[in-house]
Specification:
With about 160 residues, the chain is mainly alpha-helical. It has a single domain, classed as UDP-galactose 4-epimerase, domain 1 (Alpha-Beta Complex), CATH 3.90.25. It contains seven helices and five strands; from the N terminus they run E-E-E-H-H-E-H-H-H-E-H-H. The chain has a three-stranded mixed beta sheet. A two-stranded parallel sheet has the order 3-5. A hairpin with a 2-residue loop joins strand 1 (about 5) and strand 2. The longest helix is centred in the last third of the chain and has 22 residues, at about 135-155. The radius of gyration is 19 Å and the shape is globular. About 15% of the residues are buried. The model is unreliable at about 1-10 (pLDDT under 50). This is Divinyl chlorophyllide a 8-vinyl-reductase, chloroplastic.
Length: about 160
């Protein structure tokens, strides 16, 4: 749940060194389904994590590489997120904002949010090669975006799409 967004040629993230092992939701759903159908898993705690833990800056660098261009990066200090959360907790009408910015506590923990998955894969009978890495997920994402942009260029009279 690291704060990362991509909007109109603008990347944003935090300056926190926290590392998170992102996992594709499709893999989480598949592993959960396998676990629910396996009676030998009953009562066991399974923790799911991606293949590698990433910092926000590493994810941004990966996206820049896959997009084939450098982006304007805006880094939000975690202290600003913390202050924003504290201010939004003061009013009832901004409590949703405060709740959603709770990830600031995760970012300041200096924890690596990753666990070895070998035991989980063995229990579920899954091969690690079948898990989609963040890099593969983003490669597919960027390929889809570029294809859609090419289609738009062919169908659009706009002249501000460049390749």
């Amino acid at each position: 749940m690291q704060y990362l967004y991509w909007k109109r040629n603008l990347f944003g993230g935090t300056d926190a060194p926290t590392r998170i092992a992102y996992m594709d939701t499709q893999d989480i759903a598949r592993l959960t389904f396998i676990a629910l159908r396996n009676e030998n898993i009953n009562g066991k705690l399974l923790t799911f994590a991606g293949l590698r833990a990433w910092t926000t800056q590493e994810v941004i660098a990966l996206c820049e590489r896959l997009a084939g261009q450098d982006e304007n990066v805006t880094t939000v200090p975690v202290s600003v997120l913390r202050l924003t959360r504290q201010l939004t907790r003061l009013f009832e009408w901004t409590s949703d904002v405060a709740d959603r910015s709770f990830f600031e506590k995760v970012l300041t923990s200096d924890t690596v949010f990753s666990v070895p998955m070998n035991e989980t894969y063995n229990l579920l009978g899954v091969d690690a090669k079948d898990i989609v890495s963040l890099e593969k997920y983003l490669q597919k994402y960027f390929a889809n975006i570029l294809n859609k942009l090419k289609d738009l260029k062919a169908k659009s009279k706009q002249t501000d799409i460049f390749f």
